[in-house]
Specification:
This protein is mostly helical and 242 residues long. It has 2 domains: 137 residues, no CATH class; 105 residues, ARM repeat domains (Serine Threonine Protein Phosphatase 5, Tetratricopeptide repeat). Helix content is 63%, strand content 0%. It contains 17 helices and no strands. Helix 15 runs parallel beside helix 17. The termini are far apart. The N terminus is likely disordered.
């Protein structure tokens, strides 16, 4: 059954654009476009050798679940699809990397790097969301591996270091150890506190806003200690829930 919201999104996208999205010929521009896509049709187009039936079974489930399943399905051929014209297919590649067995977290990060720095905003989001279970499993190792990313020339990679490790985040599992003690997160936050790119600033502020929901006094202390060295925008946004 199509929900009223789903029907509204589908109507807003239009049949011609939807057909192009499902054929992998267009990239999504909005979340609404992503939500109404038929992943089974897209998979049959870009990888006809793979059985798309499992995607039809979960067609009415959440988009993150469908993305994860698609990533598992494309498994062995993720390298060929990581450069596909469709941002959704490149997102599947991120989930395929996350699901691949026998890799260390460092190896996953190295494979995910091009997708974390993808020109399309959606692919960058799928990259950190795909990695999230591994961050949850070992947040201290993730922080250690991602701290060097805070010095990258690309704002996308700098932002990834912060966004992937947020204590709460969006559409993802919480990192319980960082909710209990957010202090280790300063390893990635401190180098980014004065970043001049708004994309990075928003992530740093959101990280601290996450922490403020469990440890408001700790965030107050961080904001006070950063006075004069951090972006005023970051300080204001980080304290918005205090």
């Amino acid at each position: 059954m199509t929900t009223r919201k789903g029907a509204s999104n589908r109507a807003a996208v239009g049949p011609e654009l939807l057909a192009a999205l499902n054929a992998g010929a267009e990239q999504t521009r909005t979340l609404s476009e992503m939500l109404v896509m038929d992943f089974a049709v897209l998979l049959e187009t870009v990888a006809p050798q793979i059985d798309a039936a499992p995607l039809r079974i979960v067609a009415d489930q959440g988009v993150t679940k469908r993305m994860e399943l698609a990533g598992r399905l494309i498994g062995p051929c993720w390298r060929q699809l990581a450069g596909h014209a469709s941002d959704t297919v490149r997102g599947w590649a991120a989930y395929a990397i996350a699901a691949k067995e026998g890799l260390t977290l460092a190896q996953r990060l190295e494979l995910l790097r091009p997708l974390a720095d993808d020109p399309h905003f959606g692919v960058r989001e799928w990259a950190w969301l795909a990695l999230r279970p591994h961050v949850v499993a070992d947040p201290l190792e993730a922080l250690a591996l991602l701290t060097p990313w805070t010095a990258e020339a690309s704002a996308n990679l700098r932002r990834f270091a912060s966004e992937a490790t947020r204590p709460r985040g969006v559409w993802c599992a919480h990192v319980r150890p960082l909710r209990d003690d957010p202090a280790p997160g300063l390893a990635v936050l401190q180098p980014l506190r004065g970043d001049d790119h708004r994309y990075v600033q928003d992530s740093v502020a959101n990280w601290l806003n996450d922490a403020a929901k469990d440890h408001p006094d700790w965030v107050r202390g961080v904001v006070e200690s950063w006075q004069g060295s951090a972006s005023p925008y970051v300080l204001k946004r980080a304290a918005r829930s205090l």
